[in-house]
């Protein structure tokens, strides 16, 4: 007994260290649900108030740019509205059924916490379950890909950023329709990598990359970026570097896109 | 005694706020992020019992974790830095040893000593932190590069603050 006490006294610092380090590593690894803890953070709001204050200050600095973006988007929307109205009139189609052709539902949200300098980046949005946000909804900035919602609390949600080593997205080259898998290599927050494009295809620097609708998350044709570098690797595939349209460093206002027919599509695909 | 406890509480709170409000938002090229809060571990007086250093560094790390949404990452890195602190201090101790009355600061022990001290602790902290973050050994040398670059910025930041404290 005395030996044990002596031992404990002699190595008490090492023991305190090992206990605390064990606790920290347990926290780090408990469940791979890294993002879940961020959702918990959103619900409990320990740090929410301060996060929002920091963000308010930052939002103010970007107001001018946001204004001009909104104006541009407004005019684009007005144009398409005009076109749709004219088509409707031509067909004498007056059925007022909201589900008739609407497949995607758009909600705007503000980014209240964001990072670009980690290897696994997430950002927090100020809308949650109560505003109709669900897990697996797409997040775009303007018409450019930003991320996918991975967790929701009542009033906040957390999205996995495109700038995350775990992020995968089905993307295609707009000009010829060949698709591959888009991911981030953790190097530069302005660039992502497109894999699985076979080498017999002509790809040019400057080609536009957009989403496919295969994942049932993003609508078809949401823009991602342009090809900025092209390498033939040893395998049969290109290594294509893409310059992203979205500047994640000034991500402020985003659209959350819900696919209203997603469950239907997944159910059907699972039956087979 | 009470006086110095108060003083260090203020220093700790100030450094944590500085990290959360300012440094967490500095992202040079999306690559370099200074973690100046590690200065808390550096500055604690040499008479602080080792277990208290461990507890303080653990709690500091946890608070930073809360704000950057990375449970346990900063806590374990800061804890390791706090644990290695006595060994580093013994390794680079000046010839006359440490005076119990003076702070572990640049003003008391000079630039060279403080620079070495800060660099070693920061390197230990950043190495743990960045490897825990990626949690894989692919791209090993890129992680090393990130560690070195961020360490340079953090040490630079710490030296700036020390110069300011010294000048006052």
Commentary on this structure:
The complex is a heterodimer of chains A (272) and B (168). Chain A has helices spanning 2-10, 12-29, 34-44, 48-61, 63-91, 262-271, and strands spanning 104-113, 120-125, 138-141, 144-152, 157-164, 169-173, 179-183, 191-195, 208-211, 223-232, 238-244, 253-259. Chain A is of the alpha+beta class and 272 residues long. Chain A has 2 domains: 2-30; 34-61 and 103-259, Thrombin, subunit H, CATH 2.40.10.340. The longest helix of chain A has 29 residues, at 63-91. Chain A starts with a helix and ends with a helix. Chain B is mostly helical and 168 residues long. Chain B has one domain (2-167). In chain B, 71% of the residues lie in helices and 0% in strands. Chain B contains 7 helices and no strands. In chain B, helix 1 packs parallel to helix 3, helix 3 runs antiparallel to helix 4 (73-91) and helix 4 (73-91) packs antiparallel against helix 6. The longest helix of chain B is centred in the C-terminal third of the chain and has 28 residues, at 140-167. Chain B is globular and about 45 Å long. Classes of the chains: A alpha+beta (272), B mainly alpha (168). Chains A and B meet through helix 2, helix 3 and helix 4 of A and helix 3, helix 4 and helix 6 of B.
Describe the structure concisely.
The complex is a heterodimer of chains A (272) and B (168). Chain A has 272 residues and is of the alpha+beta class.
Keyword list:
heterodimer, A: 272 residues, alpha+beta, Thrombin, subunit H, 2 domains, six-stranded antiparallel β-barrel, six-stranded antiparallel barrel, 6 helices, 29% strand, globular, B: 168 residues, mainly alpha, 7 helices
Largest sheet of chain B, in brief, is: none
User: What would you call the shape of chain B?
Assistant: globular
**Total count of strands of chain B:** 0
Instruction: Name the average pLDDT of chain B.
Output: 86
Which radius of gyration of chain B do the C-alpha atoms yield? 15 Å
**What does the oligomeric state look like here?**
heterodimer
Sketch the topology of chain A as an H/E string, one letter per element. Answer: HHHHHEEEEEEEEEEEEH
The coarse silhouette of chain A is globular
Beta strand % of chain B: under 5%
Task: State the share of residues found in helices of chain A, binned by percent.
Answer: 25-40%
Largest sheet of chain A: 6 strands, antiparallel, barrel
The CATH architecture designation of the largest domain in chain A is Beta Barrel
Number of domains of chain B: 1
Q: Domains counted in the coordinates of chain A: how many? A: 2
Name the largest protein-protein interface in this structure: A-B, 40 and 36 residues
Task: Count up the helices of chain B.
Answer: 7
| CATH homology superfamily of the largest domain in chain A | Rod shape-determining protein MreC, domain 1
């Amino acid at each position: 007994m005395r030996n044990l006490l002596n031992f404990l006294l002699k190595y008490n610092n090492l023991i305190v260290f090992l206990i605390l380090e064990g606790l920290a590593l347990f926290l780090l690894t408990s469940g791979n649900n890294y993002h879940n803890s961020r959702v918990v953070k959103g619900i409990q709001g320990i740090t929410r108030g301060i996060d929002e204050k920091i963000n308010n200050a930052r939002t103010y600095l970007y107001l001018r740019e946001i204004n001009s973006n909104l104006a541009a988007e407004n005019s684009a929307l007005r144009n398409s509205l005009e076109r749709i109205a004219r088509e409707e009139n031509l067909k004498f189609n007056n059925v007022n059924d909201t589900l008739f052709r609407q497949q995607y539902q758009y909600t705007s949200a503000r980014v209240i916490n964001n990072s670009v300098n980690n290897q696994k980046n997430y950002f927090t949005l100020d809308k949650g379950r109560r505003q109709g946000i669900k897990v697996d909804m797409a997040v775009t900035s303007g018409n450019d890909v930003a991320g996918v919602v991975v967790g929701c609390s009542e009033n906040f949600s957390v999205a996995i950023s495109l700038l995350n080593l775990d992020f995968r997205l089905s993307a295609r080259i707009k000009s010829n329709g060949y698709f591959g898998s888009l991911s981030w290599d953790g190097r530069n927050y302005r660039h992502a990598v497109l894999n699985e494009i076979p080498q017999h295809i002509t790809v040019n620097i400057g080609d536009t990359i957009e989403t496919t609708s295969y994942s049932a998350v993003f609508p078809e044709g949401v823009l991602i970026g342009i090809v900025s570098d092209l390498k033939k690797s040893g395998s049969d595939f290109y290594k294509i570097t893409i310059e992203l349209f979205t500047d994640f460093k000034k991500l402020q206002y985003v659209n959350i896109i819900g696919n209203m027919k997603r469950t239907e599509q997944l159910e059907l695909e699972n039956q087979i | 005694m009470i006086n110095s406890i108060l003083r260090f509480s203020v220093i700790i709170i100030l450094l944590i706020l500085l990290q959360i409000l300012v440094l967490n938002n500095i992202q040079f090229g999306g690559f370099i992020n200074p973690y100046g809060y590690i200065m808390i571990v550096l500055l604690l007086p040499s008479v602080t019992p080792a277990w208290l250093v461990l507890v303080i560094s653990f709690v500091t790390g946890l608070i930073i974790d809360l704000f950057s949404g990375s449970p346990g990452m900063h806590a374990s890195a800061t804890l390791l830095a706090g644990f290695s602190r006595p060994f580093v201090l013994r390794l680079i101790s000046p010839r006359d040893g440490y005076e119990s009355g003076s702070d572990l600061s640049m003003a008391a022990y000079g630039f060279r000593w403080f620079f070495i001290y800060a660099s070693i602790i920061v390197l230990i902290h950043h190495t743990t932190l960045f490897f825990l973050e990626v949690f894989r050994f692919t791209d090993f040398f890129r992680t090393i590069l990130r560690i070195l670059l961020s360490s340079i910025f953090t040490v630079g930041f710490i030296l700036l603050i020390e110069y300011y404290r010294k000048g006052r």
